[in-house]
Design a protein that fits this description.
Shape: globular
CATH superfamily: Aldolase class I
Radius of gyration: 21 Å
Strand content: 15-25%
CATH class: Alpha Beta
Distance between the termini: 51 Å
Largest sheet: 8 strands, parallel, barrel
Order of helices and strands: HEEEHEHEEEHEHEHHEHEHHEH
CATH topology: TIM Barrel
Length: 337
């Protein structure tokens, strides 16, 4: 006989059922808390700039600086002390050209940064690297140009070179963010050819063409010289297309998928969690950070409360890990609770 596993809901309601009984004290509320945050789930972005001697504040991101390689050790040490064990590196080179050649040089800024972290911290920290061309090209686009058009296929070949150079330097995970068709497949092939089969790929699988990246472009000096990125980044109106992009990355051997930005796209995170089994990373982007910071500085909201709410909601939607510029601060909040 077929068993009926559906729950039978009690027909009784108020006053027999009083849901406020579960909220009477802080200890009670913590006891039944469904979604919990842990510092080990956070990934801290780090901007490393070639040629500077001391940290340089990012005007549109209060509390965030571009770091010289000499300051990397202290930053990673601080993160580890808060229980944060993963970083994602963004390099800012001193030299740019039309071919992004400084992105895949053995002595490039990201490659040297990876080596410095490995030397000082070994395998204590997971090193993720952003694989893109925008910071390294004179035109500021995420792919290479053929005239005034982004050439997809030459771009993915170059992205493969960049990823392999990061892997050979010691990266654990490479994260292609250019949103070029076939980039994950090209990178997997380049990694395998470089004998880096154990290096994982985190696809920026559903990266929206969002205005919330503006502070990042200020930090990374990566605004496009002309046009915009809407021919390769996704239209924020298209949730079904986002799932197709994720599915495509999975078919090309991505090990992680990422949704970016986070808070405006909780529906995409949730739908991806229902459909796919891969680890999901959500990137709470620079604009999300700047909005909270600016409002908090005006006294319009409490930064701690809003940040914890945002991070909890991202995880509740289905994210396994979160890239956030608030990583260190959230970890300190959790440690004091």
């Amino acid at each position: 006989m077929k068993m009926n596993n559906r729950r039978t809901l009690s027909s009784s309601g108020f006053p027999d059922v009083r849901l406020r009984r579960l909220r009477t004290t802080a200890a009670m509320r913590e006891l039944i808390q469904e979604t919990r945050l842990s510092p080990s789930e956070f990934i801290a972005p780090i901007f490393v700039e070639e040629g500077i001697k001391s940290p340089a504040q990012v005007g549109s991101m209060p509390g965030i600086s571009r770091l010289p390689i000499s300051a990397l050790g202290r930053e990673v040490e601080d993160l580890l002390s808060e229980g944060i064990k993963a970083v994602i590196l963004f390099g800012i080179p001193s030299r740019k050209d039309a071919h992004a050649s400084s992105a895949f040089e053995e002595g490039g800024i990201v490659q040297k940064s990876i080596a410095a972290i490995r030397k000082n911290f070994g395998q204590k920290v997971v090193i993720i690297t952003d694989v893109c061309l925008c910071q390294y090209t004179t035109h500021g686009h995420c792919g290479l140009l053929a005239g005034n058009r982004i050439d997809n296929d030459s771009s993915i070949e170059t992205l493969g070179k960049v990823a392999a150079s990061h892997a050979l330097a010691g990266a654990d995970i490479v994260a292609p963010s250019a949103m070029m068709d076939g980039q994950v497949r090209a990178i997997r092939s380049a990694l395998d050819m470089a004998a880096c089969k154990d290096v994982a790929i985190m696809g920026y699988s559903a990266k929206q063409a969002s205005p919330l990246y503006a502070p990042f472009r200020d930090a990374a000096h990566s605004a496009p010289e002309f046009g915009d990125r809407k021919t390769y980044q996704m239209a924020y109106s298209n949730s079904r297309e986002a799932l197709r992009e994720i599915e495509q990355d999975i078919s090309e051997s991505a090990d992680f998928i990422m949704i970016k930005p986070a808070i405006p796209y909780l529906d995409i995170i949730y739908n991806a969690r229902q459909r796919f089994d891969l680890p999901i990373c959500a990137y709470s982007v620079s604009g999300e950070y700047a909005l909270i910071k600016a409002a908090a500085q005006q006294g319009w909201l409490d930064e701690k409360s809003v940040t914890l709410e945002f991070m909890t909601c991202i995880k509740r939607a289905g994210a396994d890990m979160i890239i956030t510029y608030q990583a260190k601060k959230v970890a300190s909040y959790l440690g004091s609770m």
